[in-house]
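REQUEST ID: PR-0412
SUBMITTED BY: lab tech R.K.
PRIORITY: routine
TASK: structure prediction, single protein chain
INPUT:
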Amino acid sequence: MTEFPPEGVELVDVTGSQAVVRTAMLLFVREDGGPLRRTTFSRRNWVTAREQADLPKTFTFHDLRHYYASLLIRHGESVKIVQSRLGHATAAETMDTYASLARL
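STATUS: complete
OUTPUT:
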């Protein structure tokens, strides 16, 4: 991140009742500095990386998130740390998703 720091990109946030323009710090952006769309990332980056890693076609980018969570849990991180790292709104959400992996 020192060599390639996050870039501020203005996005329209439509999660609330009114659309709000806000600046998001994005680590991965397009060549023109705009936000990288999931479909573009998947087509240009993920599929190639998955093939080079010899992973099955059914292995999704989202599976890496679950793998990361399982590593945090395996190495004894608290539910609050796992919640924070994954961006869950509550510890209950983390527990509901990952309680079967270990005692958090």
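NOTES: The two ends are 30 Å apart (CA to CA).
REVIEWED BY: pending
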